[in-house]
Amino acid sequence: LQKLIHLLRATDDPLIQEQALITLSNSAAFSVNQDIIRNLDGLSVIGGMLSDSIPKVKEKALNALNNLSMNIKNQEEIQVYITQVCRNVESAPLNSDLQLAALRLLTNMSVTSDYHHKMINSIPCFLHLLSEGTERTQIQVLKVLVNLSANPAMTKHLLRAQV
Hints:
about 160 residues, Leucine-rich Repeat Variant, single chain, 11 helices
């Protein structure tokens, strides 16, 4: 894991980055590895890949963060990327794998109400995707909206959203 994280830091080759991110994502399926990746500063390295200009690299980084977000301590670190992830949802092509990966991460990050306030500005986008997206996109958006709606503090934001 340490070598993979080092490789991500050291290379600009998108194909190598994708493969390293896929391997880290698969490794994150095991809870013991989630702690190891966090302790090796892997969350910030992976989070830094969200700024990459290559959509496939961003998508793989989102998938890795999604798997890593099953851990409360990891969520505390990943939450700094929520605004950027929301921007990825808004700017990604409609129904793209990149958009779905971002929505999956937001679904996990919205299970508890701790970070709902960071998603308020994206509610109009979520509602737009609900009407314009494919079934896969709609289902993923609904998961985020259901999580947000479970928080009474979000009610006015959901009801007042301009679509």
